């Protein structure tokens, strides 16, 4: 196993922990910063999913790619929105909706599986080609801080202690790293895992993050989505510039 992929996994996992720490810290960063990160992440994930991951998985797995991508998309949809009765990205402000512990545990399981797929996407993309792994990592990294923030704020809204709120974001970090590790170990089925994870990250970018980005008033957030797509091209150029094959 390439130690570089473990480094990417650790960095992505750290994003969840930093996000959780932000919620539990006495001095918090502004909601505006988080919502701009969410919009940037949406655009960047859209770029990497449609321009790199989908063509790559079709080339690697053949006609079954479409079904696997759809399965990954519906997997996240099910666990975040059917299984978890109240879940959305960003700060949890509907206190009454989450005081029931059932809501916090289902949100944690839903977002935990989502984080696992984030990790699988990074690991399986890296196995396919290190350059692709770096592109997927960069796109996923942008929403890791808001992700840790989201789960910690759900816990906080439900009235749990700071330690539990932080612990929930640490659990997402563990799930992310486990996904990277699993897909790096299961190298032979990596193309199929990548196809499923492609559907998952497409859901995260085009559905979860995009809808959250568009909740904000004004045009700054919608414009940030375009900048996020531009960032994808910038990272692609940088990866090629340093001579990593994509
Ligand atoms: Zn809510
Ligand atoms: Zn995520």
The count of helical stretches stands at 10
Class per helix and strand makeup: mainly alpha
Mean pLDDT across the residues is: 93
Q: How many structural units, i.e. domains?
A: 1
Binned, the helix content reads over 70%
Bound molecules: zinc ion
The share of residues in extended strands comes to under 5%
Q: Describe the biggest sheet?
A: none
Overall spatial form? globular
Distance between the termini: 18 Å
Q: Order of SSEs, N→C?
A: HHHHHHHHHH
Which value, in Å, is the CA radius of gyration? 17 Å
State the total count of DSSP E strands: 0
Query: Poorly predicted ranges (pLDDT <50, ≥5 residues)?
Result: none
Report on this structure.
Helix 2 crosses helix 10 (220-241), helix 3 (65-82) crosses helix 9 and helix 7 (144-157) runs antiparallel to helix 8. This protein has one domain. It contains ten helices and no strands. It is an all-alpha fold and 246 residues long. The longest helix has 31 residues, at 31-61. It binds zinc ion (ZN) (2 copies). One zinc ion binds next to loops. One zinc ion (ZN) is lined by residues 86, 88, 92, 94, 97.
Observed structural traits:
10 helices, globular, binds zinc ion, mainly alpha, 246 residues
């Amino acid at each position: 196993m390439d130690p570089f992929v473990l480094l990417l996994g650790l960095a992505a996992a750290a994003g969840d922990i930093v996000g959780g720490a932000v919620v539990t810290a006495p001095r918090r960063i502004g909601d505006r910063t988080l919502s701009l990160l969410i919009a940037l992440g949406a655009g960047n994930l859209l770029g990497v999913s449609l321009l790199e991951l989908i063509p790559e998985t079709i080339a690697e797995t053949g006609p079954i790619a479409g079904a696997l991508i759809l399965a990954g998309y519906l997997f996240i949809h099910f666990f975040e929105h059917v299984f978890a009765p109240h879940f959305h990205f960003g700060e949890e402000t509907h206190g009454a909706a989450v005081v029931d512990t059932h809501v916090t545990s289902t949100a944690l399981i839903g977002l935990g599986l989502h984080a696992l797929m984030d990790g699988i996407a990074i690991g399986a993309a890296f196995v396919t080609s290190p350059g692709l792994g770096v592109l997927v990592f960069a796109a996923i990294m942008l929403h890791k801080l808001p992700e840790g923030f989201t789960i910690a704020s759900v816990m906080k809204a439900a009235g749990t202690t700071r330690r539990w709120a932080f612990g929930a974001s640490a659990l997402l970090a563990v799930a992310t790293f486990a996904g990277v590790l699993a897909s790096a170990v299961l190298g032979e089925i990596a193309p199929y895992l990548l196809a499923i994870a492609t559907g998952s990250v497409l859901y995260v970018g085009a559905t979860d993050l995009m809808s959250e980005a568009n909740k904000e008033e004004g045009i700054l957030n919608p414009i940030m989505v375009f900048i996020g797509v531009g960032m994808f091209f910038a990272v692609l150029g940088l990866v090629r510039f340093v001579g990593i094959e994509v």
